[in-house]
Amino acid sequence: MFKNSLFSSFKSGGENSNSSSNVQKDAILEQLVALFPNADQEYLKYCIGCYQDNHVERISEKIFNQNKGHYPKIPDGCKAANCTKAKNAFLLQINELFPECDVGFLRDKLCNVNHSHLQQIIEQLLNMEKTADKGGYPRRMNPFTIEPWELIRSPSYRKAVRYKLYNDFPDTWRSTIKAVLAENNFDYKKSLEKLKELATNNWWNSLFSVFRRKLYKEVENIELMEEIQK
Length: 230
What we know:
Elements: H1 2-35, H2 41-48, H3 55-66, H4 84-97, H5 103-111, H6 117-130, H7 155-168, H8 174-183, H9 188-201, H10 203-207, H11 222-229
Helix pairs in contact: 1-2, 1-3, 4-5, 4-6, 8-9
């Protein structure tokens, strides 16, 4: 009984401590956002984690003095730096600086960082250029231009497209559909055309059509609905 009581006491104390720490960090973040309203909040959270005390004063000093007033910002018209719209804005900006860099490579890089997107990826690409003798970063055949289907897709769009194509092609293996989606950046129309082509030329699937899978409940997505109606 004493052991259980002691354990509960330690657990409760740890939870209270974590809760208090989170409240303090939230208060610090709120003060920083008041000073830098268009700042990437994930960047500010990263900065908060780098200091033990006097967070607002020290982070402000870092931005104004060390960074000469520069800091990662949320793109105009975006709610957060990690939203899909913001990442596409970053993608277009990076494309202007590195027009030959493979678009898929840039998409993957953007989706694998959660703050300071421009700063981190530009630094990575510059470092890769320095090691050009080892290949540098991957390049594309048609530089400068990014087609609409090459932009970053939101998780909700990707899920909606996947489920719709599962239902549109019930005789096609899901693994095949996933592979086509991956090749076409989850773009509905490009994936649809490729799957139609495969379905027409694939007698193997029709042989097993008797084992057709059940339909999925499709996910509503405004972006996909608008694309289908075009």
